[in-house]
Design goal:
With 162 residues, this protein is α+β, with helices and mostly antiparallel strands. It has five helices and five strands, in the order H-E-H-E-E-H-E-H-H-E. Helix content is 40%, strand content 19%.
């Protein structure tokens, strides 16, 4: 099956249009999955690597809000300064976590290609998404209460602003 060149053109046009619509520093809801959905992410060393990466984000204008690291995927909220690109930032995040995974003797690849992202459009959207994300370990049967999941938290308090 051959790809339709018009599909690429439409996708590019749609992405350019989105860049003009949203605020200069939106909050993104991001999900990234482990390669083949392997259960490799919910580990103290991975969590520490994630937190080290998050702490260094301030230097380049990236602020991680709430997050949950599940065994096979990660959910997080991030606000980026206008000059920061989400795709490059995600590549850096995945690379940082992959270093910890290599130290734990997990073979590459560690991540599925790409990631899912959604630009938050209201405070209600942020609250709804966070409730869904924080309850993920409970729905998965990993803990009885979301507060008991050791691989979640909030690095920066993010606020939605129009």
């Amino acid at each position: 099956m051959t790809a339709d060149p018009l599909d690429d053109k439409r996708r590019t046009e749609r992405l350019r249009r989105l860049e003009r619509i949203f605020a200069s520093s939106p909050i993104y809801f991001v999900t990234a999955c482990a390669f083949d959905r392997r259960s490799i992410l919910a580990a103290p060393a991975v969590h520490h690597a994630f937190l080290r990466f998050a702490a260094q984000g301030e230097k380049c204008g990236a602020y991680i809000g709430a997050y949950v690291i599940m065994p096979d995927h990660i959910h997080l909220f991030v606000a980026l300064e206008p000059e920061e690109r989400l795709s490059l930032w995600m590549k850096s995040l995945k690379n940082s976590v992959s270093k910890a995974l290599r130290c734990l003797s997990f073979c590459s690849p560690h991540w599925q290609k790409g990631f899912f992202d959604h630009v938050l459009r209201s405070e209600e959207s942020y609250s709804q998404k966070w409730e869904y994300v924080r309850d993920n370990p409970v729905r998965a049967g990993l803990v009885k209460n979301w507060e008991d999941w050791p691989f979640s938290g909030e690095v920066h308090r993010l606020e939605y602003r129009e």
